[in-house]
Every structure is written in C-alpha cells, then in structure tokens.
Amino acid sequence: MYSTWYITIGDLSPRFDRTLHEIVDKLFPTLKDTDAALEAEFYASHVSEKDVNKCWESFNDVAEGFGINRVEMIDICSPLQDTFEIKAKAEMERITGLLFDAMDTDENGLVDALEFLGALALLSAMTIPQKITFVYNCYDFNESGEITIDELTLAMKSTLTGLCKLSIGRSCPTELVLEEIALFAFRKAGKHPDKCITLPEYIKYCETTPEVNTWVYFFDAPQDLSDEYDLADSDLDVEAHAPIYSRAQSASMDGDTPNPLEF
C-alpha cells in the first residue's frame, strides 16, 4: 500500500500556488491532474524506507539541533536526488528550498527537523508498522525502547503539524485531543500514564484501532480505513472524532476547554 496526499489548490494562498506546482512537477512526476476539482494528488510511493533513513542519517550528521536552516535541509534531502531522478544538484537544491519555504511558516529561517522527517515518513511508501516505528524512534530520545505519554503526544503533535504545514490552510488537531488519544493508547496497553509505552504496544494500538489508522496515515481521507480495507470496527469510545477534530472543529476549539471526548 502506498500513501496518497491530497491538497486542494483552491484552498492555498497565492504565495504557495507556484511553489506547490513546482514541487509536484519536479518531485512527484506521477501526479494525476483533475480538470474540475483542481486537486493535486501527491504520490510519495517512490520514497522508500531506505530513503527516509538516509535523510535521518543526514540530519544527525549535519544538524546541531532540531531547528534546521535552509542549507541544512538541503543537505538532509540530498539523498533523495537519485530517487526523484533529478540530475542537477542545483535543481534539487532549488526544489528543496521551495519545500523549506512551505515548512517555515513563521518565516524565521528555521524548520523543525522532526516535523519535516515525520511528515516525510508518513507520506512515504513504508508500511504502516515502518512508519509508526520511524516516528516512534524519533522521539525515543534516550533510546530505551520506551517513550512517555508526553513524548508520544509530542510525536503526534509535531508530525501532524508538519503535515498541516504542507497542506496549507489546514488546522492541526488541538493538543488536548492529542493528549487524550495518547492517554487511550496507554490504557489500551494496560499502562499507567506515569509509565512508558513500548513500540510493539503502540504499533498494536494503531493497527487495532482503525480510526487512529485513518487519522494518522490518511489525514485528509474522506473514508474510514475500515471501509476501504474491510477492517473490523474498534471499540474506541471516541472513534472517528480525531479526523473530525483535525479540520473545521479544531480550528474553533479552545485548547483549555474540555471537549466531549470521553474514555
């Protein structure tokens, strides 16, 4: 299975119209244009696990911190040049620069490397367990094989923030919603929130909760994974709420006000 990313060009600000079209043309040659809807469908199926891991290795080699500048991002993305069949180094640098501009929404000359790498992983051709593993390991800061509830919440927040930045005009789910999703993952694993959750436990949670699969991996998809892949519905009390909150509702939510999600 490969990941498909939809962006509605009509929703984008004029500043990013040309940027995204150039990224589509150069980095995603399999783009299928739609005449009426004006939607750009990005296929990242040619970005392999090996490619993503090479970018991760480049990040560790060139970056001094999690905030990376344009030059560092160009270096981090350089392993993708062959994958995208871009012959000229200058052209790859130019296209990566456009991607940097799309991620640098506050225009301070820095991009959160983990936001970018997490988004790249979720848009890649990796399997669902591989995607979960990559993002999980990014936030296993002490390399213990376990992460805390705060680290899990941060992993989801940063990765989804990266995706939202690349789909301009989209609202990221509130931190309150993400905290509740992380809490439920711990409860499903039989873990107290003060403890840590292991990678196998989190993979199992994601794989056995179709609504979380939908929310994390398809992000802007119109249908549930249980419909597309004939998966059994889960017993998650807040099922289907996360995708809803990732859109219009999240934009008007107050992060300090309790929401109707209950566990």
UniProtKB/TrEMBL annotation:
N-terminal signal peptide: none
Keywords: Calcium, Lipoprotein, Metal-binding, Myristate, Repeat
InterPro entries per UniProt: EF-hand-dom_pair, EF_Hand_1_Ca_BS, EF_hand_dom, Recoverin
EF-hand domain: residues covered: 91-126, 127-162
GO-annotated molecular function: calcium ion binding
Family membership: Belongs to the recoverin family.
UniProt name for this protein: EF-hand domain-containing protein
